[in-house]
Each structure stands twice: as structure tokens, then as C-alpha cells.
Amino acid sequence: MFEGMYTALVTPFAQDGSVDYGALDRLVDAQIEGGVDGIVPVGTTGESPTLDPEEHMAVIEHVVQRADGKAKVIAGTGANSTAEALELTRRAIDLGVDGTLQVTPYYNKPSQAGLIRHFTAIADLGTPVVLYNVPGRTGREIAVPTVAELSKHPQITAQKDAGGSVDRVSEIVRECEIEVLSGDDALALPMMAVGGVGVISVAANLIPGPMTEMIRAALEGDFETALALHLRYHRLFSHMFLNSNPIPVKAALAMMGWIEEVYRLPLCEIDAENRRVLEATMREVDLVH
């Protein structure tokens, strides 16, 4: 259902800190022109923790309307409160999303039984769910047996895995009836080599066309083309995490003139040395001159 190249979209802000919907339109248009399969607004890359509920919904609505069926929209509606995740998901469903991205509840560190009940409650709303495993941010991994149990639910169709382990993806592909999307651009191709079906990409904000070409080549079994693109952009993939995501990708988009470099606290500007490294990498791949 969700194989392919999906962009983890940034949320651009104006200088006064408000959501810059004009810049958001330009970003969505660039993704569609790049041929992406889908767009994922208000996830980690979209700075969802600093958006209030009304802004959260407004960004989703705007992306759905701007995409206008040309790309699927998987909305980030996860939370560490099941009640909050259910409310956000209900509202996103009403806006016409194709699916929702559900992060592992963070900070309160539920048991695996709690995770099953949490994700099942959301899936019972009747819209496809993409599980989001990112233990480095949440403090809790979705164990492979838990993924296997959840994958029996007809609406739990995919998992975004940002656990940094190709071995783990191999286990999931072997043990579970679920699509696996990489949550790490640098591991997208290795994960696809063992059965993953795509990526939810940070770097695609900058290079939607090349990322789409790489993923489609891999899906078609053309690993020579996919590897060439992976190697060309590998340093860029890595440098999207010089600081916490989305700081580097927003700095890069600002260098390209696509957005204002504005964050909401506690996130702030990239430090000077990492900015120098990032700009050099951008020059290497002809994104700035």
C-alpha cells in the first residue's frame, strides 16, 4: 500500500514564528514535481512537538489540499497519550489523509502489551496505520514479536523503522506480514536489499527527484542505478543529522532559498562548524553554488 518514496516534510516558519503556508505550498509542489509517492507532514521533521493542535491540523489540511491526490498523504498524528493520538487521528481522517504515522509513545515507556493496545486502538478507527519505530527518540523499541502481532490487524499496513539496524529489518520481513519503510536515508538502500519497500526521507525535502529515482530503481531490481545515487548523496544523507533533525535540513533549504531558517524553541540554528560542513556537502552535490 505504501511502498515507494515518501518525504518527511519540514514545517516552514515565517520570521515571526508563524507557519509559512506560502513556503509550504512551494515545498509540496517541489515534491510532486519530483515524482514522490507520498508526503508525510507533521512528523519529527515537521517539528510536530512545537505545533499546537490547531496548527497541526491546519498543516495537514493544507498539504492534503495542495497534494490534491497527486501524492498520498500520511499524517503524523502520534502521541504518548492514546487519547490524544486518537483525537488527532480522527481529525486527520476527516481531512482525507491516506494514512497516519504513529510514533511509539515517548517518555512514559509503555510495555509491549501497552504498545499493542495503543496501536490497536488507533488502527480500529479504520484508516491505514504506519508504525514508527525510533527508539533513539522515544526510549522504547517496538519489538519484532510486537510488530508481528500488530501486523495481523488489517489497518496496520507498514512500519517506518529508524532503529538503525538492517538485521532488525531482516527479522521483520521474515516474521511479519507488513511493509517496511526505512526511516534513515543512508540505510534505505541496504534495508531494501533485505526486503524493505521504500523510505520516509528527510533528504527528499532537498532532492525529491533523485530520491524517487533511487527508490524506484531499487524496487525494479536495478541496484546498479540505485547504488550510484546512494553513493552520490550518501554524505548528504549523513549530514542531515549533524544536529538534531530537522535543524540541518531546514538550514539546507534556507541555503537553497526555499524557506526562512526559523525554528521554534527548544530547537535553534545549526552551529557554525556544522553549517560550514553542511554547506560544503551541498556544494558537492550542486545544490548551492
UniProtKB/TrEMBL annotation:
SUPFAM superfamilies according to UniProt: Aldolase
Segments traversing the membrane: none
GO molecular function term, any single one: 4-hydroxy-tetrahydrodipicolinate synthase activity
Protein name in the entry: 4-hydroxy-tetrahydrodipicolinate synthase
NCBIfam families the record matches: dapA (TIGR00674)
HAMAP family with a match to the protein in the record: DapA
Methyltransferase found in the keyword field: no
Gene3D superfamilies xref list: Aldolase class I
Catalytic reactions of this protein: L-aspartate 4-semialdehyde + pyruvate = (2S,4S)-4-hydroxy-2,3,4,5-tetrahydrodipicolinate + H2O + H(+)
